Amino acid sequence: MATEGFPLKGYTLPLTPKGAASLVESPPWYYGGEVMQLVFRTAEEKARELVPPPLEMGPEPGKGIVWFVEWVSVSESNPDLVFTNPERTVYQECVIMLQCSFRGEPGYIVPYIWVDNDFTLMRGFVQGFPKKLARICRTKLNELNPRVGGRRPGARLKGICESHGERLVEGSLTLTRPADSSELPAVRFYLMRHFPDIEDPSRPAVHELAVSQVADVAVADVWAGDADVRFFRSDVEELDALAPVETQGGFFHGMGFSIKGGRVIHRYR
Question: Could you give the angle at the alpha carbon of 228 between the alpha carbons of 227 and 231, nearest 5°?
């Protein structure tokens, strides 16, 4: 919230007399969606370049995951927004994460992530997700569509992430079998919060590592399958350096959780 005694209110800009115009409402935030996650391995030396100290490489150096997700998300203070303004509660997301660890605790750092809605872009900056805007599409299965069908062996899904006229990420998954939730990779997010100093562009005003405080995780209807992942060259991105040397399969499932904030684990200043 705004500084105590300050006349304008809000969690993020814009601050206003009532605080209703803030782009992002204060946590907790609640999420539910369908996740297509694709597991890959990239060259260890390329992954290492994107794992900042004091984080270290994880137990499987070079392991990465791509998520294509459609989320429905609301805050504690305004859950009715899903009805009153659904455009502000639904978004598509493409996430690239690399395995790392902190003091022996495995997790993932997110070097690249794209979304298609402004509120989640700003919320990512608050948390430490380096979000950019993009156009993201993913196959939607439907049990009642005679030519598409639902989750079944042989069903195929594709996710595409495009930004500024360039295709950046493409992933596909062919479902082979129902799976147990215990087979899913355990994901713990280590996040870098970085905000420039307005007076001195040579150094940041905030530069720290945090761990996301995630609770109430639930998954449902898990399927496993064969996956493929491609990263494309771009003049304004560097993700093609993470080109997979091996794709290790993937999963498709429902997922829900809440984020109550985060905890700073290291300050660079």
Answer: 145
Domains and their CATH numbers in the chain: 30-267 (2.40.400.10)
| 44 close to 59: Cβ distance less than 8 angstroms | no
Contact 221, 179 (CB under 8 A): no
Q: Tell me the residue type at 174.
A: T
Q: Compute the distance between CA of residue 19 and CA of residue 173 in angstroms, rounded to an integer.
A: 43
**Token reading at 118:** 């402004």
Q: Which residue shows structure tokens 């091996």? A: 246
Q: pLDDT tier at 1 (50, 70, 90 boundaries)?
A: low
183's CB contacts (< 8 A; 6+ apart) are 222, 224, 251
CA-to-CA separations, 120 to 11, 35, 40, 247, in angstroms, rounded: 14, 17, 26, 29
> Are 13 and 119 within 8 A, CB to CB?
no
Question: Rounded to 10 degrees, what is the CA torsion of 10, 11, 15, 19?
Answer: -20
Mean pLDDT of 166-176: 98
Beta strands in 26-164 (DSSP E): 29-41, 56-57, 63-75, 90-102, 105-115, 131-133, 135-138, 156-163
- With contact defined as beta carbons under 8 Å apart, do 173 and 164 qualify? no
Q: Tens of pLDDT along 32-48?
A: 999 999 999 999 999 99
Omega of the bond leading into 86 within 30 degrees of 0 (cis): no
Provide the 3-class DSSP secondary structure of residue 119.
Answer: helix
d(C-alpha 137, C-alpha 139), whole Å: 7
